[in-house]
Structures are given as C-alpha cells and as structure tokens.
Design brief:
Strand order of the largest sheet: 4-12-11-10-7-5-6
Shape: globular
Oligomer: single chain
Number of helices: 13
Bound molecules: pyridoxal-5'-phosphate
Number of strands: 17
Helix content: 25-40%
Strand content: 15-25%
C-alpha cells in the first residue's frame, strides 16, 4: 500500500483519536534511521516515544525474538514460564526490588501499582481510596491511570474517575505535606515528568515525598515508564535522587518495541495474594524474551554511553539557547530524555513539522517544549545535524 491508500482507510475507519498524523508510514529501520514507503530516510529522535531504546534492526535483539518465535509465543499464567522467570530475576537483580508483575503496557503497570496500594490499605483495615498525584503528570489512558494523571484535559469527558486524588503542584512542598494525610494509600509521581514537558522534580520535593510516605504509611509509587530502563543515564531515574520507591512501574523501552509493562515492589509493599490480579497476555514468552534481551543490553557500558552522549546533546541544546536566547527559554531533562522549551512566539508543533519535512523525527510535550527521546545508539554526528537544522529554523 502507498501512503495515500493507508491514509484513506485510517480516515474512514480508525477511531479519530490521533487526528491528522505526520505523513509517513515506516517500513523498516537501521540504527537510528527509519525508512518510509517512498524510501525516504529519517533520523529518529523519538524512538517510538522512548520505546525503541536499541534503535532499529539490532541483530542480537532480532535473533532473540526469532529464536523465541521458533519455540513458543504464548502459553498462559496457569503454567510456569522460563522467559518470565528470567526477566523477573534480571529485573529484581538490576533494581533491588523483590516482586514483579507483568502486564502489556504502561497503563496496566500503573493499574497494578494502584491496586497494590489500595489492597494494602484494605488489608490494614482501612476503606481509604485516597491517592496523591502531581499536576502535569501523565500515567496512562485506562480509567484508573487516567484519574492518576493530573491534567484536566484528559479527565473531563470521562468523569467520575477511579478513586479520589489530590493533585499537587510539582515542587510545592507545603502543598504535598498538606495532601499526604494519614488516610492516603499511595503517592504517585514521575521524577522527570515526560508528557508534562520534560520537567524534573526538585531533589527536596522527591525526598519529602519519601519522608511523608514513611511517616504516614502511604506507599510511594514512582512511575518510571518513560524515565526507566536507562533513559536518564541511570537504570532507574530515582537513582538520580537517591530515593527508593515502594513500587515502580516500567514499560516503554522494556520490550524494545514488543508490548510489555512491569510493576515492581518491595516485599513489604506486596499486598497481593492469589487471585488479586492477573492477565491473559501479560508476561508471555515473546515479550519476556524481548525484555530479557533489552535488560541485558542496558549494562554499565550502555548507561555510561547514555550519560556521555546525553551530556553532549544537552550541551548542544544549551549552545543553541545561547545563540537564540529569545527563542529557547529552557533546556531540560537528563541523559537522553531532553527538552527545549520555546518562547510563546514559537509553535512547537510547527517546528516539529518543519523538522519532519527535513527528515528529523522529534516530539513535543507540555505547553511549548520540543522533546527528544532518541534511541541509545544515536551518534554524535546525528545529533550535530539535528542541532544545525534546528539552528536554521530558529534564525
Ligand atoms: C507512556 C507513559 C504511560 C502510559 O503507558 P502506555 O503504555 O501508553 O499505557 C504512563 N506513564 C508514563 C510516565 C508514560 O510516559
């Protein structure tokens, strides 16, 4: 099919939730390059929204998947599963958590985290269904994860939500202290808000969240769906804050493109007993084989690379800010999760489209932020050429 045929079917029959998409359909990729149905080549600074961490056509990854396809793809959770056990062990070893559950997406990992906190309160004899999350956060599109998301634009048509939330302004320590009362069962946050605009929380705010949870018995849930799996140069972004949540969620990069989400928790936070949760597809052989490969690939050497090349990229963005002080008002993020906030005179959507026509794929986030989430194998030369294209556009 060519692009116009694909577009016609999409316009006629796909639910119109994605609006008018960018005009390309990709057929294959190599490294950080993507190719569309016309054969045009793009450099990818979005990685399928922080998913394709190893880039495209990684030989080892493809071979691991092919081997799994040749043996077994799905059985179900009535039985033991070697790939699931391998990924469980690898994640616990890497993160220091004790328990894991696998679903198929980020939102499902969040659902699991919310249920863990709710069940724990229930087990302690409380009827509490009160949570605290942050304004500007994003936790997913299912009903419970949508309610956790602190942005009205996602809620309005779907109210009432699931459970009761106090939405606290990020970095407002007084408001957080007031919100985390004795009857709160969980506090959920991203240490760097991704969809919200690549906004890192302050160190003292994250530490305060930990302290308040310790004081009141609420569980701290850190959503590492976007920030985790090495994205910030640490395996988990909470390491940058020297904080350990009771529960974390992973997804996006975990399967390297194969859908999988994980919820991890400490022994004490694991309130589930047999029958409390489940999934037909979650933790299947193929997704777990993919996850085990990706976790293995994100070793110390890879983390060091992300840190170094991320710093190189961030320095380049800072130099652009210096060259265009009235256009770029802030450079944000850590590792290869970076944002450039533009002044209101610029439309980030327009810049994204112009870069797309120059064959660079980037994202946008928050109110006016260009968002960069390249695969971890992005090259300095690829960063240089994106930066010079952006420099041209801002002139
Ligand atoms: C993407 C994302 C989610 C939702 O993940 P899905 O796989 O789309 O359900 C949740 N939290 C954060 C921080 C995310 O970036």
């Amino acid at each position: 099919m060519d692009l116009s045929e694909i577009k016609a079917i999409d316009a006629a029959h796909f639910m119109p939730v994605f609006g008018e998409r960018l005009p390309a359909a990709f057929t294959h990729g190599e490294g950080a390059k993507l190719y569309d149905t016309t054969g045009a080549e793009y450099t990818d600074f979005l990685a399928g929204i922080a998913v394709n961490a190893l880039g495209y056509s990684d030989e080892g990854f493809k071979n691991a998947l092919k081997a799994q396809v040749d043996s077994i793809i799905h059985s179900c959770n009535y039985f033991y599963n070697e790939q699931q056990a391998q990924l469980t062990a690898a994640l616990c070893e890497k993160t220091g958590y004790d328990r894991v559950f696998f679903g198929n997406s980020g939102a499902e990992a969040i659902e699991c985290a919310i249920k863990l906190a709710k069940k724990r309160a229930f087990a302690k004899g409380s009827a509490s269904a009160k949570f605290v999350s942050l304004k500007g956060s994003f936790h997913g599109r299912t009903l419970a994860s949508l309610t956790a998301t602190g942005q009205d634009k996602f809620h309005v048509p779907f109210e009432p939500g699931t459970y009761s939330y106090a939405y606290v302004e990020a970095n407002d320590c007084a408001a957080l202290t007031q919100a985390v009362t004795e009857d709160v069962c969980g506090v959920i946050l991203e240490v760097i808000q991704g969809e919200g605009g690549v906004n890192a929380l302050d160190m003292r705010f994250v530490k305060l969240a930990r302290e308040l949870c310790d004081r009141t018995g609420a569980l701290l849930i850190i959503d590492e769906i976007q920030t985790g799996m090495g994205r910030t140069g640490r395996f988990l972004a909470q390491e940058l804050y020297d904080v350990k949540a009771d529960i974390i969620t992973l997804a996006k990069a975990l399967g390297g493109g194969v859908p999988i989400g994980a919820c991890l928790c400490t022994k004490q936070a694991c309130s589930f007993t047999a029958g409390d949760h489940g999934s037909t597809f979650g933790g299947g052989h193929l997704a777990c084989a993919a996850g085990a490969y990706v976790v293995g690939a994100i070793d110390d050497e890879m983390l060091a690379r992300i840190e170094t090349i991320g710093a190189y990229f961030k320095d380049g963005l800072r130099a652009l800010k210096k060259a265009h002080p009235s256009s770029i008002i802030d450079v944000k993020g850590a590792g290869l999760m970076l944002g450039a906030e533009l002044s209101p005179q610029h439309s980030v959507a327009a810049i994204k489209t112009e870069l797309f026509s120059k064959k660079y794929i980037i994202g946008t986030a928050g109110t006016n932020t260009l968002r960069f989430l390249p695969p971890y194998i992005i090259l300095e030369t690829e960063i240089d050429s994106l930066l010079s294209a952006l420099d041209e556009l801002l002139k």
